[in-house]
Design a protein that fits this description.
The complex is a heterotrimer. Helix content of chain A is 67%, strand content 4%. By secondary structure, chain A is mainly alpha-helical. In chain A, the strands form 2 sheets. Chain A has a two-stranded antiparallel sheet. In chain A, strands 2-3 form a two-stranded antiparallel ribbon. By secondary structure, chain C is an alpha/beta fold. Chain C contains 12 helices and 10 strands. The longest helix of chain C is centred in the last third of the chain and has 18 residues, at 167-184. The two termini of chain C are 33 Å apart. The chains are: A mainly alpha, B mainly alpha, C alpha/beta.
């Protein structure tokens, strides 16, 4: 029983990370039909922002040594600026492009970002100590849980609630939701296209920054493909949950976290290395039976 | 004008003739005058040509963007390795391989066809399951396929030597054996494109709903394209194994997927000519960047682009093409028939595609215009 | 107030509008009628900035608006109620109504307008917090008109308001539009398929067919005459058109 609870909390913590990443992807997809393959690389950039650019094997902390109250917003600003630049330089010229074109463009962007990081930081992974004190465990009833996991879950809840309030209570949020549902009609009613899109990129960047800090604290290692597995699983989460649906993204994120953790815990040992393959296989199954995802949005149904 | 008469046939296969001559010329020149570095680049280019033309066969005709084809390259490569490695080595290192594979050894061209066949088989199994999906769901499914293959092959140590490598794959001398397969693949691409199946697929590409309403068996034909395409990619993979001599799984993942996709996009998704020209163009650019990275001396000073410029350059080119010329260098058209006849406006087999996937954008309300 | 001058609009190789010119004076109700595929929806969309013009100009009160983005044109006081309603189904009725008000400069009047509009559309008041997608067809049509009016437009473009609605509801819709024209001095440009209704209250009528204006006159002159029918169905054209055009109809 304790083992199960332990696994459950593991699943929640992992799921939180995936949910946050999935939110970032789902937001852009909902508004722009953009499947942002570069989202993982936004996350990577957030992590690398902490250290001094150099090709050395050991990382020297730069922003990473600042007090939290300065460090976190700075990292957020870095990633948000990157996201806004990506919109202005790459995705805005592609406003009218089809979904496959946008996918390839984001793929190219990710490729560029990864290699720029390579150029300035070197190819070798670097060890980084961010908030390693959070790996200390805390006792909650019968289970012992690393503080970091609790922080991750808490941050996710706060950000998700914050995003929901933003979307429901503010005029910008209502405009974004309208644009996500019917962009053309929203523009006819005066909603500024570029502003809404920029806002979506900014929020997506913010979410990516949060994931980068939480993930780096957990893994302790920087590499130029740091965000790629996160991006893959986040994509899967959005697809499962329903692309274009933010609730779906969160549900999907926790779902993937749950499946992944449970597989890790309960698969026979010989099959455990193939855990990822199983997760992806589950994705394909879900795509087959509910191509719109578990919580599909109307917008994806093609009107005949 | 008779669609299948001799004159029409000439026109339709004219690009194949031009491309074949072009490829042969490039290889002949490179072989005669190039050093070892150039030879290597040449062979790698030819192998990528096979893969990209095969990708074009599926993506260009069906309009479905597939991120998973490098998975078939992986399958083909390892199949060729299993077929040609020393039995004693296999029995020692790859204990998971079935008995008959361990003890046997097949000679050169046979193993390549086996590689293609295995890839085609996997494509048939996987495709039968997912080919129903369309649009983004399909693309993501192919991405998942790539990830699955990568995960399975990386971890199935007893069969693939996992993250260490398979060594001792006999290498081929020179580019000429590979060239033959290139010509075969191009032929396959044109045959499919000009066939009933190709026509049906392109009709469904442009309007899924209308095509289904006309009782076109979209699904069946798409599967055929998928399997044929995987066959040739598998062949490319088998040749790649021989080229490398040493196999690891991580070669067949996102980087190679990006490179091959960008070659296809740069050249033009909608045509075989596009695939071929794209491979040549990107190879040339990457080579130029590579030599700039190596640097050159001007007087006493040494100028060199920083490491990683190749990749960034490739990424930037991709982005620029997507923005300014999404239909690619060839505008997704084949090499045109240069001799005009009285009715030059007749029978164009390609509709100019003004977007990457050569597919009409789905009528989603969400597209910001 | 609105001058549409010789506009051409293409969708790829398909020509939707071939040199259409329309004028609407302030306070007028002008109707465009014509068969399906005539280009009526395209024209309204082009005026509102939703589709690009191949050539030609659109001017609003002397200012050129062709080439501007839809949201900018909306801010100048043009409101489009497109065909098919386009209610934001996942947003509540209240949110639907408020969307257009965010861009208004006269913040003080927004709430007043809100109240006023709800008086005209009492059914909406009852459903303020329900998702827009749950309303009936007629209610949705009310909603999108109310929504368009809340942007405080000078010119309202309505695309086939009666499509798919019961006659009683259509009457209601038109009563409201005419009332608003009277009270607020709105200018209306309305697409319709059926000519009966249109003849009753329009000031002027254009008949559009095959992307061209076939007929244009005061409504008073057209009542009871055959002219509309001929223009609508192209009776005369068929005999006189050159061979290539004949095959295209």
């Amino acid at each position: 029983m304790i083992g199960f609870l332990q696994n459950l909390i593991d699943a929640l913590s992992l799921g939180s990370l995936y949910a946050l990443a999935a939110l970032g992807i789902g937001l852009l997809f909902g508004i722009l039909r953009l499947a942002n393959f570069a989202h993982g690389d936004f996350i990577t950039v957030g992590a690398y922002a902490l250290i001094v650019p150099s090709l050395d094997v050991t990382a020297k902390m730069f922003i990473g040594h600042w007090p939290i109250i300065l460090m976190v917003p700075t990292v957020c600003i870095v990633v948000v600026v990157l996201a806004l630049l990506a919109d202005a330089l790459l995705f805005r010229p592609l406003r009218r492009a089809s979904a496959p074109t946008l996918m390839i463009a984001s793929f190219a962007l990710g490729y560029i970002i990864q290699n720029v990081i390579l150029m300035f930081y070197g190819a070798r992974p670097k060890a980084v100590d961010l908030w390693s004190n959070l790996s200390q465990q805390v006792e909650i009833g019968p289970v012992r849980v690393p503080q970091l996991q609790l922080v991750t879950i808490a941050v996710t809840i706060v950000l998700t609630v914050g995003l929901t309030l933003f979307l429901r209570r503010t005029s910008f949020g209502v405009q974004m939701r309208a644009a996500a549902e019917d962009f053309r009609m929203a523009r006819y009613l005066g909603v500024r296209a570029n502003f809404v899109v920029g806002l979506a990129f900014a929020i997506s960047g913010l979410l990516a920054a949060a994931v980068s800090l939480l993930f780096l604290s957990q893994s302790g290692q920087l590499s130029n493909s740091l965000g790629v597995p996160l991006m893959l699983f986040a994509f899967i989460a959005t697809v499962i949950g329903g692309m274009g649906s933010l609730t779906g993204a969160v549900v999907g994120g926790f779902g993937v976290g749950l499946v992944s953790t449970m597989l890790q815990a309960y698969l026979p040992p010989e099959l455990r290395p193939f855990r990822d393959a199983f997760v992806f296989a589950v994705v394909i199954l879900i795509l087959l039976y509910r191509p719109g995802g578990i919580i599909p949005t109307k917008a994806l149904v093609q009107r005949v | 004008m008779d669609e299948f008469g001799p004159q029409m046939m000439m026109r339709k296969y004219w690009p194949l003739m031009v491309l074949s001559v072009g490829v042969l010329a490039i290889v002949a020149v490179g072989d005669a005058f190039g050093g070892e570095q150039l030879q290597t680049t040449l062979i790698e280019m030819l192998i990528r040509m096979i893969v990209v033309v095969a990708m074009q066969l599926f993506i260009g005709n069906s309009g479905v963007l597939s991120f998973g084809h490098i998975g078939f390259m992986c399958i083909g490569a390892y199949a060729a390795a299993w077929a040609t490695c020393e039995p004693s080595w296999k029995q020692l290192m790859l204990t998971g391989l079935p008995e008959f594979l361990q003890s046997a050894q097949w000679p050169f061209p046979a193993d390549i066809f086996m590689a293609g066949a295995l890839a085609a088989l996997v494509a048939l199994l996987f495709g039968a399951v997912v080919i129903r999906l369309s649009g983004i769901a399909a693309s993501i499914a192919t991405f998942a396929f790539l990830a699955i293959i990568n995960s399975v092959y990386s971890n199935w140590e007893s069969v693939t030597a996992g993250t260490s490598s398979i060594i001792g794959i006999p290498t081929l001398g020179g580019p000429w054996p590979t060239v033959i397969f290139v010509l075969l693949t191009m032929l396959g691409g044109f045959l499919f494109q000009n066939s009933r199946y190709g026509l049906m697929l392109r009709a469904s590409r442009d309007d899924d709903v209308a095509a289904t309403a006309c009782a076109v068996e979209v699904i069946r034909v798409r599967l055929i394209a998928f399997v044929v395409s995987a066959f040739f990619v598998g062949i490319g993979g088998g040749l790649y194994a021989h080229f490398l001599g040493v196999l690891t799984v991580d070669v067949f993942y996102l980087n190679l997927t990006f490179i091959t996709l960008s070659m296809l996009v740069v050249g033009g998704v909608g045509s075989v000519s596009g695939a071929v020209i794209g491979v040549v163009a990107v190879t040339v650019v990457v080579e130029v960047l590579r030599s700039l990275e190596a640097g050159f001396a001007v007087g006493a000073a040494h100028f060199a682009l920083p490491e990683g410029s190749q990749e960034i350059g490739l990424g930037l080119i991709m982005a620029l093409i997507l923005i300014f010329r999404p239909s690619g260098l060839t505008r997704s058209r084949e090499i045109p028939w240069p001799f005009t006849t009285r009715s030059t406006t007749s029978a164009s087999s390609q509709t100019p595609a003004d977007d990457v996937a050569a597919a009409a954008p789905e009528p989603l309300k969400g597209a910001a215009e | 107030m609105l001058e549409v001058e010789d506009i051409h609009v293409n969708y790829g190789r398909l020509v939707a509008l071939r040199g259409v010119s329309v004028n609407v004076d302030e306070g007028e109700i002008v109707c465009i009628i014509g068969p399906n595929g005539a280009g009526k929806s395209t024209m309204l969309a082009a005026i509102a900035g939703g589709v690009p013009l191949q050539s030609g100009t659109v001017r609003l009160a002397g200012q050129t608006i062709s080439g501007m983005v839809p949201e900018a044109i909306s801010r100048l006081g043009v409101s489009l109620v497109p065909e098919g309603r386009h209610v934001f189904g996942t947003l509540s009725v209240a949110e639907n109504l408020r969307i257009g008000t965010f861009q208004r400069r006269d913040r003080a009047n927004v709430n007043k307008d809100f109240e006023r509009i709800l008086e005209h559309f009492p059914q909406l008041r009852e459903r303020l917090n329900q998702p827009g997608g749950r309303l009936s067809g007629g209610e949705q049509q009310m909603l999108v008109i109310a929504r368009a009016l809340l942007t405080r437009p000078r010119l309202v473009l309505v695309d086939e308001p009666s499509l798919g609605l019961a006659p009683r509801i259509i009457d209601q819709v038109y009563e409201i539009l005419i009332d608003l024209r009277r009270r607020d001095g709105l200018t209306l440009l309305i697409n319709e398929q059926s000519s009966d209704r249109v003849l009753k209250f329009a000031d002027r009528i254009y008949v559009l067919r095959d992307g061209r204006v076939q007929l244009h006159d005061q409504a008073a002159n057209l009542r009871g005459g055959q002219a509309i029918m001929s223009a609508y169905f192209g009776f005369q054209d068929r005999h006189n058109a050159p061979p290539s055009e004949r095959t295209s109809s």
